[in-house]
User: What shape does this take?
Amino acid sequence: MSSRSSQRIRGKTPIAEILRMYPDGRAYQLMRQLHWACALCGFSPREPLAMAAKKHKNSPLAVLEAFRALDLPDGPSDEMIARAAVRHRKYAMP
Amino acid sequence: MSDTHHAVIPFESLDPLTIGAAGNEDLVYRETIEIDIPAANLMADIRPDEPDPIDDTMAAAAAALESPHSGPRFSDLLAGAGSVAVIIDNQFRPTPASRLLPAILDAIETAGVGDARIVCANGKVFPMSESDIVQKIGEENLARMERMGVPFMQNDPGNPDMYTYIGISSRGTPVWLHNAVASADVKISVGQAQSNHWGAGGGGKLILPGVVSDATIESNHAAFVTSPQTHYGAVAGPMRSDIDEVATMCGLSGTMNVILDTYGRVIDVLFGAHPDAHRESITRFNAIYAYDNPVADHGPADIAICGVFAPTDHLFFHTGWGAMSTDLVVREGGTMIYCSPSPGVHTDLGDFPGLALMDLMQPYMPATKENYERVLHDIHHRTIEMWSGCIWVPIYEVMTRKHLTMVTLEENLAMAAEIGFDATTSLDDAFAAAMERHGPDAKVIVLPYARYQLPKNAIRMEAEDMAALEQIRL
Assistant: This one.
């Protein structure tokens, strides 16, 4: 069952607020695993999590699930992180 | 004659805010890492001849404002002006704003300009916290600003409503400028002048990327960071030329430029019209830190050993710029040993490790020419954000051609391995491995202050002729 802080994470929760929820660096570590620079970005005070996910072409739902799992005893599973990290744009090298 | 050369290399880190704010000689110290290099292998150990620091930065700033290098005095700029914007740099630059602002506030008060504001040129970097602001600006200045009704603002790229459209630069950069700057009659920047891998820092760079929109920053950086003509010392390169043109379009009235020595002490303060004053500051910087390129006599080095000095910061993201200047004197396939403690930063949002943001290269590792194509592709697909890519991408590009070994603190080794960086805590081990790689005749260059140092023949000061197009249109 999720704890209070994970329940507070919503799609509209700004990145900076999520970082402050986890002063031990868990949220930063998850952003790193998604290859997001959001923690150090000037968008962080305003950028909602779902918008950040879209900007990075990740699934907002999968990202939300991974961030909400930060309070699970073992944190988000590898599968959750992998789902969140998928970039949905198909690339074709020119 | 000794058969070894004993090289003492700075290996230090100090929070730029501390350097900029303190003016405290107790903080001026040098931590070092040392190595013995066989004299027969040593090509050069290049050390700048730095002038003495200025005793009184506040007085020097006041004098500079009233004796400009070019253009009107600051008091003349303010005469009759209804409003003024003073743009300062952020928590990752050691410019001592707290000691430069008193003279500026004096002038604003004397001129009776009632509508003034100070704006932080944080570009797309997260804003300064309350404690950062106190350190950067200083409590006395903040109290005075409150008395004078001078607000402090920061760039806010996540809020498109904050920007005014200015136009399109000749190179195609669309420009949206922060309203607080756009609406001011007089606009001056206060920053650190130094050569760097975008050409130069300071001056107009406080406009772009400092106080422009996300789209403006990304457009400029995506177009010009990877150009072969964007390199250390290339003031005339496309990136810096575009930056200076955009600053002109935005009406930058003047720039105050400081040069800081490798201890973070102020050695020069200059004010004057944009872009002339900044160019003069870069010329003065290069007169101290640019060196005669030994490659002409000896050929390129096989191995470079670089140091990191305090004002360059806690993050390899900021200390590592010297990789791009060192690249200019090391042969293809050579080795660059970069000694950077990079202890990481503590911020309002948490603690970030010494390799923060360098991990953005991880999806593209190993650094190869094929993977660099993917990087280029993703830059122009806007998958890579170039506010951070403007640093890690050039380092990555160097890594596609040369071996980079980082000598750092033990706490960084795990993250370095995760990224795919070659890292160690031992300079001796790094050097031994490099000698093994390049053989007993390897030529070694030592650049203890690599981020400041550049070969003289890399300097390109003359910008392209921007008047040509205007003349055609006439």
